[in-house]
Amino acid sequence: MTSDALSKGSPWPLPSGEPVLRLEAVRKTYGSAVVLRDVALEVPAHSVTALIGASGSGKSTLLRCANLLEDVDDGAIFLDGEEITDPRIDQDAVRRRIGVVFQAYNLFPHMTVLDNITLAPRRVHKVPRDRAETEARELLDRLGLAGRAGEYPDRLSGGQQQRVAIARAVATRPRLLLLDEVTAALDPELVGEVLAVIRDLKDEGMTMVIATHEMAFARDVADQVCFLDAGVILERGTADRVFGAPAEQRTRDFLSRLTEAGRL
Ligand SMILES: Nc1ncnc2c1ncn2[C@@H]1O[C@H](COP(=O)(O)OP(=O)(O)OP(=O)(O)O)[C@@H](O)[C@H]1O
Ligand SMILES: [Mg+2]
């Protein structure tokens, strides 16, 4: 991808050797249920990590902990080497460095596409309106949404809305982008356009953690695949290794169920 809004001003600093995100022995419980158990994870700069696993295995919870939407019960999480689970941390400042997109796009319905995208850059990051809008239009161009800036979300298709949600998340030039089942609510014919946008972000060097049921996409885009089973990262490796030669029986079972269902 050529020069564009996102590459101006060095949005993603060069890797320092320190992983962008690191989880150490993270434990998360809801009441008596242990939802994440001894989870360790390293996400290097400019890499894509896919979280796969059955429903309820803890993928969303892991992402919510990484974004400080949930407190962890034990262990620690680091962003660029800084412990963000330290109670003295400024949580809002941490969240400003992390972009998040969930399954339901959650665009502000009373705001135009342009205002949805420029809200955080202007209000939170104090980017002047002119610059925020110029950059937002460039971003929309790149995401195939040129000419949609003045539209309200309910006039867009699900795939278009989800692309606006991704534009909104990257408009603040986050250090890390967390994507949780961003295609799950979309009609099949709209999934591809959203996945293409994510692939472009990868090509530009965006560091991402993606919870997904789109196995073909995970295999294609992920540098690292983690298979979660009942709150444990049971297996991790390159996409080719985890999909091609899973070491754990439970991973094999999970993948063969998907294959039988025609989803792999
Ligand atoms: N706020 C909550 N209160 C209590 N239990 C919760 C809460 N959020 C999640 N859980 C439980 O934690 C477990 C992990 O849920 P999580 O949403 O992380 O799974 P998931 O892997 O993202 O599943 P899916 O593929 O369906 O999105 C589940 O058993 C779920 O019921
Ligand atoms: Mg989930």
UniProtKB/TrEMBL annotation:
It is found in: Cell membrane. Belongs to the ABC transporter superfamily. One of its GO terms (cellular component) is plasma membrane. Residues 21-255 form the ABC transporter domain. Keywords: Amino-acid transport, ATP-binding, Cell membrane, Membrane, Nucleotide-binding, Transport. Pfam families: ABC_tran. It comes from Actinacidiphila alni. It is a peripheral membrane protein. The keyword rRNA-binding does not apply. PANTHER family: AMINO ACID IMPORT ATP-BINDING PROTEIN, GLUTAMATE_ASPARTATE IMPORT ATP-BINDING PROTEIN GLTL. InterPro entries: AAA+_ATPase, ABC_ATPase_HisP-typ, ABC_transporter-like_ATP-bd, ABC_transporter-like_CS, MetN_ABC_transporter-like, P-loop_NTPase. This is Amino acid ABC transporter ATP-binding protein, PAAT family. Gene3D superfamilies: P-loop containing nucleotide triphosphate hydrolases. The keyword Membrane applies. GO terms for molecular function: ABC-type amino acid transporter activity; ATP binding; ATP hydrolysis activity.
